[in-house]
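A reminder before we start the practical. When you read a complex entry, don't treat the lines as separate problems. The point of joint prediction is that each chain is placed relative to the others, so the output describes one connected object in space. Small molecules and nucleic acid strands, if listed, are placed in the same frame. In the example below there are two entries. Take a minute to note the order of the lines before looking further.
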Amino acid sequence: MLSQLGDDAKLLAGGQSLIPLMKLRFANPAHLVDLNFISGTSYIKDDNDTVRFGALTRHAEIEASVAARKIPILHDCATGIADVQVRNRGTIGGSLAEADPSGDWATVLFTLTAEVRCLGTAGERTVSLTDFIKDAYTTALAHDELVSEVVVKIPPKGSGGTYLAFKRSAPVYPTASAAVQLTMDGDVCQDAAIALGCVGLTAIRARDAEAALKGQKLTEKTIARAVEASRAVADPQSDMRGSADYKRTLVGALVKRGIEIAVRRARGEQVEVGHIYA
Amino acid sequence: MSDSIENISIQLKVNGKSHSRTVEPRKLLVELLREDLDLTGTHVGCDTTYCGACTVLMNGAAVKSCTIFAVQADGAEILTVEGLEKDGELHPIQKAFGDCYGLQCGYCTPGLMLSALQLLSRNTQPTDKEMRKAIAGNTCRCTGYQNILKAIQTAAQNMKGA
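Here is the predicted structure of the whole assembly.
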């Protein structure tokens, strides 16, 4: 159908971004193809080492899922996206396919090993999330392709993570956000993944910050180094949510707090986390 | 590209009553409710998915009816503020909003009551935090929310016996 309708066609998933964008005339598709009536596109399948989300799985369904209890960073994300009403409609596949620089899912999934299955007339292919997100509002999807599934690798034992987003109110996008996933062996950090949201054209993987933690005992000093490296790699724009300087400072603070929570969770502690409001 | 966009026939249940309508695909659910079905209790506030004034329940889930096309509600069950009272009796949530002064101008109230209903139908004893989270998508510019929270808590207590 997409190949028949051409470039002016848009897919409608949860519609919680696309419909407002159309009302504001930022999006003006000639054709809308509603995916909501296709059955079998909303599911959460928990295999031994991966969790697979159907593209039209709603944020609210992820929030309430067993998978999200097992992988707390997914729960942190799903439970804080916008508000109840938006979470009841919005979907993980739609969020990734829209690739809004302020979207929550890409930031979180950058810290886990995640793949996106893309389905088109030419068949199905699997793209790593890092390759899928090309730029702001730009993905690897061809115009006759759609997201069919999101596959997330379950983190190993001894791994803990968290997603912290700082918002002015529930329905708005965060001012900045940070996702941290750490695998610990005692006090030593075996593996680290840190991603920053809303401070660049896409979510940003803070590789230098990860390197500052990997193989190290997590002391005040090593954490400070990771925070500094996170601030350095952030590339925020000044806008109505805050100045670039403010966002850079904020994202550093979120990474610091995120590391502390991730360590506690890696030790098996239950830490309840929600999005933070100004 | 097609020359014209055809209207689409839909069937839905609103407040327990079945309706069949033929609508333009671009028509929003809130427009169908207000303009075609004369159910003007559902309000349009921001029209940009922020304020929650247009909140209704769709198959039991709170949704912003300004951010769903009417054709997407084909086959769905919708509950609006008009469907809350039964046999001339106010719903416990409506009564509690009145008793606790959970409103001033009243514009946001229908949406808030339906968000409260989703919460209380899934959680009969919500904590303060759970109540705040449940209404985070409903903006009120009069009350400061304190009396709204009191109203939801009062409704929860009154609904327990029911």
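Discuss with your neighbour: Chain A touches chain B at residues 8, 15-16, 19-20, 23-24, 30-32, 34, 36, 60, 82-86, 88-89, 169-172, 274 (CB under 8 Å). What might explain this?
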